[in-house]
Task: inverse folding
């Protein structure tokens, strides 16, 4: 397993340790988990924006979730 070091102030370290205790995680797990989640969320948003721009540039149209549900029976009580 690889090791990555980060530098934080003493106050930041105390705060991170308190957050780790609050969540019942080790400091390493807290930083890794929340770093990856933030990066994944940002990546997902950038990909969605890119695809949205691509579809509009190609004159592709999108439909709302309400339209999908109406077309495929979701509006009459059926679950997808």
Result:
């Amino acid at each position: 397993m690889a090791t990555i070091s980060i530098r934080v102030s003493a106050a930041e370290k105390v705060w991170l340790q308190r957050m780790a205790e609050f969540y019942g995680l080790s400091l390493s797990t807290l930083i890794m988990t929340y770093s990856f989640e933030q990066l994944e969320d940002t990546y997902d948003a950038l990909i969605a924006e890119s695809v949205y721009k691509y579809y509009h540039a190609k004159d592709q149209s999108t439909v709302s979730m309400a339209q999908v549900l109406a077309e495929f029976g979701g509006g009459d009580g059926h679950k997808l």
Q: What stands out?
A: Residues 9-33 form one domain. The mean pLDDT is 89. The CA atoms of residues 14 and 56 lie 48 Å apart.
